[in-house]
Amino acid sequence: MSTAAVAKSLGVSRRTLMRWVDQLDLELEKNELGHYQFSEEDIERLKQLQNNPTGTPTPANEQTRKGTITQMVSLDENKVDFLTQRLEEVERKVQSKADGVVSYQLLQHRREMEELQSIIKKLELRIEELEQEKLSKKQEFGKDPALVFDQTKAPAKPSRRKGLISSILGF
């Protein structure tokens, strides 16, 4: 039977059927055009796997995606132990790296805090100096410091005509 006919009889798409063939490593014959030809044995095997992919009864409430074939894989105990040890080693390395990053961040925050504290101390000193200056000026001029006049002369305003000419000529 052709791929399309087998897919139709199983109620799946051709892509799903070809995925099953790849997953199960089925060796199929090809016709003169290079298309797969399924034998009755191949079709029966696919039907069995479609109905019961793992070879064990499935619970009624378990939902599997249509077109999925799962195979049971047996693992060697040595491989499992080796993988478990590797996983624990990687977890230790990750934990160590995370601890290092946190330590670095704490040191960086401590430096920043010390810098901010030194800036605050400088600001406090400057505020005290300004308050001292203000008190000394107040005592120097008496009770009313508003009578102090600035001794500098105000700059002369440019004439309107000169401003107009410079704006036109771009001076």
UniProtKB/TrEMBL annotation:
CDD domains assigned: HTH_MerR-trunc
Signal peptide span: none
Main location: cytoplasm
Limits of the HTH merR-type domain: 1-50
Classification via SUPFAM superfamilies: Putative DNA-binding domain (SSF46955)
Key word Coiled coil present: yes
Pfam families xref list: MerR_1
Compartments where found: Cytoplasm
DNA-binding annotation, residue ranges on this chain: 3-23
UniProt entry tagged with the keyword Lyase: no
Start and end residues of each stretch annotated as Disordered: 149-171
Name of the featured protein: Chromosome-anchoring protein RacA
Gene name for this UniProt entry: racA
